[in-house]
Amino acid sequence: MIKLKKIILEACVDSVQSAIYAQEGGADRLELCSNLLIGGVSPGKALYDQVRKNTDIPVRVLLRPRYGDYCYDGYEFEQLKEEVQMYCEAGADGIVIGLLRPDGNLDVERMEELIKLTGNKKKTLHRAFDVCVNPMKALEEAIEIGFDTILTSGQKGTAWEGRTILKELQEKSKGRIEILAASGISAEAIKKLIPYTGIMSYHMSGKVVLNSQMEYRKKGVSIGMPGEDEYVIWQTAKEKIAEASGIAI
C-alpha cells in the first residue's frame, strides 16, 4: 500500500474566531498577527492568550512593529527584542521576523540578535525575503543564522507567479530549511505548485469577507484607511482550510 505524503498547512489568522476555524479546517499550525488587511503586524498579548486558550495547535507569532518597509530604526528594533522575549516566555512555538538593510540585503546582524533570544523556538523569515535584493544569497544567510523556515511567494505577487524562483529555492535548500509558499494560496494553487516546485509547505489565510453585524451605519465618516469599507469583516473560512489541508501526493 502506498502511503500518501500530506502537505503542511499554516493558516495566517488575526482573530480568535479565525484561529478556531483554521484548526477545525485541519491547519497544522497558525501564524498569528493583527491587521491582515495591511499585511499583518505584531498582535497584542491578549489576542495571543485568547488564541492559546481556544486552540491547541502550534502558534508562530508574527513580529512586525508597523506597516511599510522592513528597515527599522533603533526604537523599532528594541520593540522587536521585547516582543521576541515576551512571546517566547509566553510559550509561543515560534516567531516570524524579517529585517532589511537600506541596500536591500538581509540585516543579518540584528536578526542574529533576535534569533539568540528565541532559544529553541522555531524561527521563520517572513516576506521581507520577497523584497530583498538577492534571494539566493538571502537563502544561504537565513540557513546560516538559524532560521527554520522562509515564507515566500518567490518575489512575485503570488506564489504561482513566483513559481520559478520557488522551485529554485526548494532545490537549493536541499532540505536544510523549510520553504513555505505564500500568497494566492488555495487548494487549486497548491495542486499546481506541488508538481512544479516540489514544495509541500503552504501558508494561507482562507479569508472570506463577511458583512458587519452593525445595523446603524454612519455615512461619510472613515476612521481607518480611505476607501476601505469599515462594515465588513475578514475571517478565515474553515471550508477553505479544509479543502487545502486534505491535499496529499
From TrEMBL:
Family annotation (InterPro entries): CutC-like, CutC-like_dom_sf
Q: Which Pfam families would you find in this protein's record?
A: CutC (PF03932)
**Subcellular location(s) of the protein:** Cytoplasm
Which keywords fit this entry according to its UniProt record? Cytoplasm
Q: Origin, by domain of life? A: Bacteria
Q: Where is it mostly found? A: cytoplasm
Family as reported in the entry's similarity comment: Belongs to the CutC family.
Name-wise, this protein is PF03932 family protein CutC
Name its species.
Answer: Ruminococcus hominis
Quote the gene name from the UniProt entry: cutC
